[in-house]
Amino acid sequence: MTDTKSTPIHISGIPREKAPEPPLGTDPIIFGSRYYSTEFADKEWERMWTRVWQIAGRVDQVPDPGDYIKYDINQESIICIRSSDHKIRAFYNACQHRGNQLVSAEIGTLASGEFQCAYHGWRFSDTGECTWAYCEEDFPQGSPCGKLNLVEIPCQTWAGFIWFNMDPECTDLREWLNPVAEHLDSYHMENMKRTHWVTIEGTWNWKCVQDNFNESYHLPFVHPQTVTTMNEHYSGCQFDLYPSGHSRMLMPGGGPGPQYTGKADRTFKSLQQTFDFWDFDPEPYRNDLTGLRTALQGRKRELAESKGYDFSRYSDEQLTDHYHYTIFPNISFSMKPDGCIFLRSAPHPTDPNKCLFDMWYLTMFPHESTEYYSNSMRDWVSLDHQVEHITGLAGEVSCGPGIDQDVAIWTTQHKGLQSRGYRGEYLPTQENRIRYFHQNLDKYLAMEPT
Ligand code: FES
Ligand SMILES: [Fe+2]
Fold first, then answer.
1. Which residues on adjacent β-strands are paired with residue 318?
2. pTM of whole model > 0.90?
3. Which atom in ligand 1 lies closest to the alpha carbon of residue 98?
4. How many whole angstroms from 150 Cα to the centroid of ligand 1?
5. How far apart are CA 297 and CA 363, in angstroms?
6. What is the full per-residue pLDDT of the chain (450 aa) written as tens digits?
7. What string of DSSP letters covers 349-413?
8. 155 C-alpha to center of ligand 1: Å?
9. Residue with the nearest Cα to atom 4 of ligand 1?
């Protein structure tokens, strides 16, 4: 059966126990103004965004001392730099003289080993210390050197990502990620390479994205192709809400669920590339498509080593199923045995009716391969160079066929959320993660501004 509830728990692999369900209630709380009100967006910034861990980029973007990346979120700009002691540090991108941004490039290397402000020439070391100021003797308050240093914020790494937090009192990253970090360690994302990097600007609020990735109720309608290859029905899936505010969905893949009544040929066509890659003959399962999943798991197990993969740390379910984790407030990791789809929504700096949406694909290259055809991305990818950052407006730049279908829906949903005729949500149980997300957001909004 293609059903996570009937699947025995394996000794190895990610724990699959269902998290206890917190009481959520059913009265509407998700009203339209949450998505378009500037006042609400300002509250989110002051009370929530400035307290949560965020990702600036990948560790492999800053291999050497002096290498830095810049990540802008809302009106803020953060520099993460590999310092000469090899530690990665995060600083606000603001000169301590009169505020000019120190760097404008998304990625770079300090030419002279120091930041130099373009306005009046102040210099800062790679550990943030002010080392030089023009006319140093002319400051009645005393020389700024060694005193007016860059403002550093917490910065940690996990899974090959560089994380920062604007709250100096924040909890340790790993503790904050609980239990997601522990679950996803086995994928060794630090060894994966970003092979797709797309950012689009769209006309919807960032929460439309997060709501969308917190439910799979939309799959048969927005992504009708998915019913042929996965058991998207809630009866076959598991949804977990963790006390940390993060959540998870387990969805069987490698074949459709028992409710699928379509043609076997549709399934075979959709999974053709997987079958080809794994030299798998699906014909014996033509009249019992639910048997495909376990058969494919067995085949992947059998051929993994010869294909250059180490699947020994994965359970059988991890070889076919969708392990989809949403990190509060705005990040999703959709895990596959050979990669991860990273999805992120971020607020637009000036307009709550707009959003910056990121789609990355991280590829686990087979052993000793530097180039290979990524089955998941349907494209050739290379280990040897950083992938180009593609940016543009929604509709003009593609995030791949599946995600493009989501993108199209966010635009019309955001319009409808602004209607006087939208009276708040009415959710089935399988959309509990959405309600949980908004309740967690409300907890932050009840706090004092940072
Ligand atoms: S603002 Fe940077 S040196 Fe003046
Ligand atoms: Fe979707």
1. none
2. yes
3. 1
4. 12
5. 20
6. 344 444 444 447 999 999 999 999 999 999 999 999 999 999 999 999 999 999 999 999 999 999 999 999 999 999 999 999 999 999 999 999 999 999 999 999 999 999 999 999 999 999 999 999 999 999 999 999 999 999 999 999 999 999 999 999 999 999 999 999 999 999 999 999 999 999 999 999 999 999 999 999 999 999 999 999 999 999 999 999 999 999 999 999 999 999 999 999 999 999 998 999 999 999 999 999 999 999 999 999 999 999 999 999 999 999 999 999 999 999 999 999 989 999 999 999 999 999 999 999 999 988 888 887 765 566 777 888 788 999 999 999 998 888 999 999 999 999 999 999 999 999 999 999 999 999 999 999 999 998
7. SS-TT-EEEEEEEEE-PPTT-SEEEETTTTEEEESSSPPP-EEEEBTTB---HHHHHHHHHHHHH
8. 25
9. 120
Ligand 1 pocket mutation, candidates 91, 92, 120, criterion most atoms within 8 A of CB: 120
Ligand sitting nearest the alpha carbon of 332:
2
**For ligand 1, atom 3, which residue shows the shortest CA distance?**
120
Ligand 2 centre to CA of 108 (Å) is 35
Output the ligand 1 site: residues, CB below 6 A: 95, 97-100, 117, 119-122
* 9: β partners: none
**Rounded CA separation 240/106 (Å):** 36
Q: Which domains does the chain have, with CATH numbers?
A: 4-44+188-445 (3.90.380.10), 54-164 (2.102.10.10)
Structure token pair of residue 30: 């998700």
C-alpha of residue 100 to centroid of ligand 1, in Å: 6
Distance CA 215, CA 96 (A): 44
Sole residue written with tokens 């994966």: 192
Task: Give, using CA atoms, the residue closest to atom 1 of ligand 1.
Answer: 98
Radius of gyration of the chain (CA): 24
CA 213 to chain centroid: 10
Helix (H) or strand (E) holding 334: strand 331-336
Separation of 119 CA from ligand 1 center, angstroms?
Answer: 5
CA angle 43, 44, 46 (to 5 degrees): 65
Instruction: Please state, in angstroms and rounded to a whole number, the distance separating the CA atoms of residues 21 and 242.
Output: 8
